[in-house]
Design a protein that fits this description.
Rossmann fold, ATP binding, alpha+beta, 347 residues, binds adenosine-5'-triphosphate, 6-stranded mixed β-sheet, ABC-type tungstate transporter activity, OB fold (Dihydrolipoamide Acetyltransferase, E2P)
């Protein structure tokens, strides 16, 4: 039952690399917060600061009302699942999971019987019962990942910190295990921070997502808010496979604008725009409707991707990608197109 609160948290390496840049963030009790961003944006550093594995340059970290900023890692009661899992190769599954408890045995006055009981309990939770005596090399990748998770959970942490925990697995297992991680974190009501660069994974696992770039949090919100109300150009283009079109505002009324990108597009904007402003217009491929509309485009290429067809269009001189459930037309043919949704951002 812990609320994690970061206040103006900052980490500068070697006096010049600003890895985490004045981050404010609240993760509510029992909430799963994904930290989503590209490589090098500071996600791991943020996680390590919360774990106490890295000391902040400035700013503060609270667990509920306790200021833990200067507390050593072993006194924080956080557990980290690293990308590499870091299992002990010579130990059995049981001993790998028991390891953290044995370190705490004295302090928490744990008996051998209690250790056994708690390890069994957590192995059952991650569905590894029966594999106690195996060593990591005798397990599949997915099973090793579960051991890493069990090892983190066995100490009953207040805060669970996962750093790209599924990055070493193939696509199918990643989908299975992200659901597992969510199920378990929710069952235990444990406050969780989940670092990933994969948008779909972030959306699937988390209650809310913090999108990060260049050390800064760009937006915090539910997956729907992030997807449907991107706060800025970075967020709009990082989630989804967007078209980016350059244009100039022709009309503006509140947040609704008409932008000339070679043809007129109705867009919404978080900025106060006025006619004549140069903007970048972001259009999701699924918001390019084929088979009606005032725009005339030529089909250049159609690619079948399983769940949908991706169509490359040329509309006047402007290239546009569309995605939909049916192939619209053959290459070379003309189709009527409507852009049903778009966002306009200042460059
Ligand atoms: P990735 O997804 O590639 O792991 P990330 O978003 O987790 O990236 P960080 O590992 O937090 O990013 O790194 C953020 C920035 O801080 C990078 O520019 C990185 O090179 C730098 N950095 C990280 N750790 C150190 C360190 N110990 N010393 C110096 N610079 C560091």
């Amino acid at each position: 039952m812990t609320i994690v609160r970061l206040e103006k948290l900052r980490k500068v390496f070697d006096n010049r690399v600003v890895a985490v840049d004045d981050v404010d963030l609240v993760v509510n009790h029992g909430e799963i917060m994904a930290v989503l961003g590209p490589s090098g944006c500071g996600k791991t550093t943020l996680l390590r600061l919360v774990a106490g594995l890295e000391e902040p340059t400035s700013g503060r970290i609270f667990f509920d009302d306790r200021d833990v900023t200067r507390l050593p890692t072993q006194e924080r009661n956080t557990a980290v699942v690293p990308q590499t899992w870091a299992l002990w190769p010579h130990m059995t599954v049981f001993e790998n999971v028991a390891y953290g408890l044995r370190l705490r045995k004295k302090r928490e006055r744990l008996t051998e019987g209690e250790i056994k009981r708690r390890v069994r309990e957590v192995l059952e939770l991650v569905e590894l019962t029966g594999l106690e005596e195996r060593r990591p090399f005798q397990l599949s990748g997915g099973q090793q990942q579960r051991v890493a998770l069990a090892r983190a959970l066995v100490i009953r942490p207040e805060v669970l910190l996962l750093d790209e925990p599924l990055a070493n697995l193939d696509a199918k297992l990643r989908v299975e295990l992200r659901e597992e991680v969510r199920r378990i974190a929710k069952k235990l009501s444990i406050t969780t921070i989940y670092v990933t660069h994969d948008q779909e994974e972030a959306f699937a696992v988390a209650d809310r997502v913090a999108v990060m770039n260049a050390g800064r949090i760009q937006q915090v919100g539910t997956p729907e808010e992030i997807y449907y109300k991107p706060a800025n150009f970075f967020v709009a283009t990082f989630v989804g496979r967007s078209n980016v079109l350059r244009g100039r505002v022709a009309e503006a009324k509140g947040e609704a604008v008409v932008v000339d990108v070679g043809f007129p597009v109705n867009a919404i904007s978080p900025h106060r725009l006025k006619p004549g402003d140069d903007v970048e217009v972001v259009v999701r491929p699924e918001d390019v409707y084929l088979g009606g509309g005032s725009l005339r485009c030529v089909v250049e290429e159609v690619v079948f991707l399983g769940r949908y067809y991706q169509t490359k269009l040329k509309c006047g001189g402007v290239a546009l990608k569309a995605e939909g459930p049916r192939p619209p037309a053959a290459p070379g043919e003309e189709v009527a197109v409507e852009v049903t949704k778009a966002w306009a951002f200042k460059p």
